[in-house]
Amino acid sequence: MNSASTLGFPRALRHFGVAILTALLAALPSGQAASPTTPATVNGRVTDGASGDALSNAIITVAGSPVSAATDLDGTYTLQLPPGSYQLTARYAGMDDMKQTIEVSAGQTATRHFSLVSSVQKLDAYVVRALRAGQAAAIHEERHAPNVRTVAEIDTFGNPGAQAGELLQRLAGIAVDGSGGQIGAVYVRGMTQDFSSLLVDGNQIATSGGTSVTNGNVYFGQVSTGNISSLEIIKAPTPEMDGNAIAGYLNMRTRRTFERGSGRIVTFTAGTSWANNHEDPTVPYRDRPELDLASLTYSEVFSLFGGKNNVGIAASATRNIGNGTIIEVGPRQASAAQTGFFVPLPAAGEKPQPLARAVGAGQWGSVPKQSGDLNLGFNADWKVTDSTVLYMKTTYSRVKRRSGSSPSYFRWKLTTGATAANFLPGSTYDLLEARNGTLDLESVLYIRESEGTAVSGGLEQKFMAGTAKLTAEASFSRNRTMYPELNQLFARMTGVGWQLDRRGRDPWVPLVRQTAGADWSDPASYTVRADSQLISYSAPAMRWGGRTDFEKNFFGAHPFTFKTGIKQSNFYQKANRDLYYYTYAGPATTPATGGTKPWVGYNMKMTYGAYGPFPFLQLPRTGMAGDVWADRNNWRQTSSDVWNTIYNSTLNDVEFTDRVTAGYVQANSKFGPLRVMTGIRLEETKTSGSSYTRAAVSAATNTNLGTLPVEQNAARARANFLEWDTQGTKYRNTFPGIHLAYSLGTNWQARASYNVSITRPSPANLLPNMVVNEEAQTISAGNPALKPYTSDNFDVSVARYFSGIGQISAGAFLKEITNYFRSFRDTVPAGANNGFNGEYEGWTITQNRNVGSARIRGIELNYQQQYTFLPGFWRGFGSFANYTFIETWGDFGSLVGYTSKLPNLTPHSWNGGITYAAGGLAVRLLANYRSEFYRSTATGTLGSGAGVLPGTYNFEVYQHSRTLVDLKIQYSFGKRYILLFDVYNLTRDYGANDFAHFLGYEVPSYASGAGTSYKLGLTTRF
Question: How far apart are CA 652 and CA 37, in angstroms?
């Protein structure tokens, strides 16, 4: 809910500070002698008896008493009990319960350690034990968490060099875009990443797309699994967490050495990978096997400064070369859905026949070799005393162009004018023939580099015999993502006749053949297109902040835990882009001179060899043989080029900042079989966006006039930008929440949860900039006053837990969203008060605005089990399956009205898999499905001139369903060596595939995929 509270935030935070100070003073020992009723303190540590690793969140219960405790990350726990004799029980999923008796007197401090063993895991080889232990740990944490969350230990899915997103996609409620182990977009409970936040150890890290300001909520390339111990999806945030994630938080937890026993552990993985995308040998991307994966992890616990096992170090270094080759198919390569067709007027009673006037395809990769990612991690813990811990966590990532590598893409685009004269009579949707086509070939050097750093550190201080804890932490992260070179070069031929035949063909790869004109495989048929662009983008981002939390446990007839804290976080991002336009001025490229033959770098048959060969120009500014840019005299900047350079370089130079100040209180307690957590969070958000104020359209002296001298046209371009304008907004939100968990018996549990959360707008939507298209008479405007979505979230579920490591659960959720914002197109009215001082009358303006409400509701089913209770061979099997369904609804008043179509929300998603683990062998067959979902609606006309179907039509764009199937095999040679073999995307499905629905047709628009890829490696532990 949007806060209408009269409580001022500075004053509110002072109240929080007073509450913390009061709690601290109450926690200090009084110095008085113990009375006969003074409680005794019991503490200790719970570990895995096989490995010595600490078991965090193990549950210690006291027979006949409501008192219980959960262990910290280092396995320690603290209880307070009245004087007497007790039986303590330590429980952890997948482990055998352990009981101990203890007798304590008033004011006494006693210690009881627990070393748990597992009859399920103890006879298995290391790789099998790790898989089962990881799954058991995840189930245990989910079961005992105060809120709704899904957890996965890294060991559950193997391969230390895999991307974190590739592992995350196996969890309940998760679907992804991407394949080949490289994950892009993530959908939590069917909602896009705009509704989620990516955290590392609870802190959001700075991420950047490199081209514009953005929240960058989800980006997995910055952290490798070499430094990650587990992943969790927090679907119902507690008051101590930020409010900015309606779908949930994706939290990656890094390794801390206090989670395991003493000693040194070093693991090293080396491997190779290759891809099979079934391309023709003429394609210059060859993903040849080499040392594609090298991963080193090190951890050790030391006894230093007079302590015992009190300093822990964990470090990792991973270099990974993934499958970087991508195939693009579909007519969107050449034209958008609403402009890609001509529809002739049908005869009476006949069905309209949309005729494709655009077709194309593309190919991404690196010539001649792929570049690698580097990830480093270093964590340190120092247990100064039994009550004081200092810690530091760091990660570093780098994606840089490899020496001798030229990241690039090539595209061919074939277009024909949308008039009846350009199509043979009788052409149909399935079989058409076009005249007068233009074929463009694009050669683009596409270099993307990224460097990210995240550092956090703090203090954990326990008080009052371990029953109270103060945590203070500061964090900083920076991401420097850029495109130092995005150089575009084009070749063109005209007068092309062509035929498109869909009959009996893959809808993504119809037959396209040339029927007239010069041979499109001959470089003599092409000219070097006059225009060329040298582009560089950068959008560095930073996040920094600090938090202080105080927690106090109270024991007695009704034990409870109280927690409070304050936090401030800051975000800054600046986008710069430089575009330099050039005109070809080199030797004439005509048929008589061989056309583009001197500059051809590749004669390529694309899209599985279905199209071409096409003579693509050599990649620009690489210096390789045939590079037309090798001779600078081949290019010049005309007066028009200068205007375009200045105008387009300045247009999207922007800055954005936000500051979130927050405070919270929460408490949790247990009433017999019922556990309750409740609390409230307050947040104040201040945003500020900056961009250039634009000149009005009436200033005709600002337009591009190429007949003027360069200096005068440059001045006209600069005159479009008047001054650097900064605007912002401030809003406050209140986030109450309550989470209930009820034990229905030994292995049954029910949950119910209510909380409030928001999703903040993308910074790009909050900027005060205005992009004007004089030719189309359109305006795209930001909205600095845009408020976040606010959602009331409800969750209910019931779960059954299996003693043989497993669970089955069913749940439902509802999200009631207000302040929903979406894009609207309006006509600028007349008059001096039209918002533009009377300018732009009649133009079309597109802007996001808060309007109306939306509802997202769904169900979630989850099952997983290791069949360790079966005899012999069969005890090695296990399986898992989860399914998420959502339906959506929106009401946007008179502007749009009621709709069941909200963009980018996936109705159905599921995961499933079969595992086998025995005798050192672990095999996983894994599937991930995401159903078709609605993306957007565009409008357009269906051609020009006589004989065209009249009117304007809607083009509804959907992303088609897809299924990814992966196979992972590991074999352990004792405890020291593990052989791994992964196969990604056995189905060869596309990672992204859009269709346009209109006139009763489902028309392919755009798809991309990486084919099937393989990874082979060896891990050794010493």
Answer: 70
Residues 552-597: pLDDT tens digits?
Answer: 999 877 888 999 999 999 999 998 889 999 999 999 998 889 999 9
Encoded tokens for 461 = 């201080």
Q: How confident is the model at residue 221 (pLDDT cuts 50, 70, 90)?
A: low
- Per-residue model confidence (pLDDT) at position 358: 92
**What pLDDT is attached to residue 117?**
85
Distance CA 638, CA 621 (A): 20
Q: Cα 14–19–23 angle (5° rounding)? A: 150
Distance CA 489, CA 487 (A): 7
Residue 1 has pLDDT above 50, yes or no: no
Determine contact, residues 939/952, Cβ cutoff 8 Å.
yes
Residue 298's alpha-carbon distances to 188, 312, 316, 381, 454, in angstroms, are: 33, 11, 6, 14, 19
Token readout for 201 is: 């150890």
* Burial class for 1015, CB neighbours closer than 10 Å (0-12, 13-18, 19+): buried
In this prediction, residue 9 carries a pLDDT of 46
> How deeply is 312 buried, as exposed, middle or buried, from its count of CB atoms within 10 A (0-12, 13-18, 19+)?
buried
Backbone angles phi, psi at 512, to 5 degrees: -125, 115
Q: Sort strands 992-998 and 98-104 into parallel, antiparallel or unpaired.
A: unpaired
pLDDT for residue 35 = 58
d(CA 685, CA 215): 14
Rounded distance between C-alpha atoms, residue 204 and residue 18, angstroms: 27
Q: Quote the pLDDT of residue 378.
A: 92
How far apart (Å, rounded) are the C-alpha atoms in residues 1005 and 501?
16
Give the predicted TM-score (pTM) of the model.
0.87
Overall average pLDDT of the 317-335 stretch: 84
pLDDT value for 223: 59
- The SS3 of residue 717 is helix
Joined together, the tokens standing for residue 278 give 């079934």
Cα–Cα distance list, 770 to 697, 716, 967 (Å):
12, 18, 49
Distances from the Cα of 959 to the Cα of 290, 634, 903, angstroms: 35, 43, 10
Strand ranges (E), 920-990: 921-930, 933-941, 952-959, 962-973, 977-984
Rounded CA-CA distance 472/545 in Å is 11
Q: Would you say 549 and 564 are in contact if contact means Cβ atoms under 8 Å apart?
A: yes
Q: Residue 588: is it exposed, middle or buried by C-beta count within 10 angstroms (0-12/13-18/19+)?
A: exposed
Query: How far is CA 921 from each of CA 39, 268, 364, rounded to the nearest angstrom?
Result: 51, 19, 37
In angstroms, the CA 955 to CA 1006 distance is 14
The position carrying tokens 């986008």 is 575
pLDDT, greater one: 22 or 1021: 1021
Question: What's the CA gap between 129 and 137, in Å, rounded?
Answer: 12
pLDDT tens track for 711-739: 999 999 999 888 898 988 899 999 999 99
Give the tokens for residue 19: 């509450």
**Beta-ladder partners of 446:** 486
Give 71-114 pLDDT, tens digit per residue: 888 888 999 999 999 999 999 887 889 999 999 998 899 999 99
Is there a contact between 92 and 45 (Cβ–Cβ < 8 Å)?
Answer: no
Residue whose token pair is 């100070």: 21
Distance (Å, whole) CA 375 – CA 397: 4
**pLDDT one-digit tens code per residue, 836-856:** 777 788 888 888 888 888 899
Q: What is the 3-state secondary structure of 3-62?
A: CCCCCCHHHHHHHHHHHHHHHHHHHCCCCCCCCCCCCEEEEEEEEECCCCCECCCCEEEE
Would the pLDDT of 32 be above 50?
no
Identify the pLDDT of residue 681.
Answer: 97
The two three-digit tokens of residue 40, written as one number: 């005794």
The answer to whether 905 touches 936, Cβ cutoff 8 Å, is no
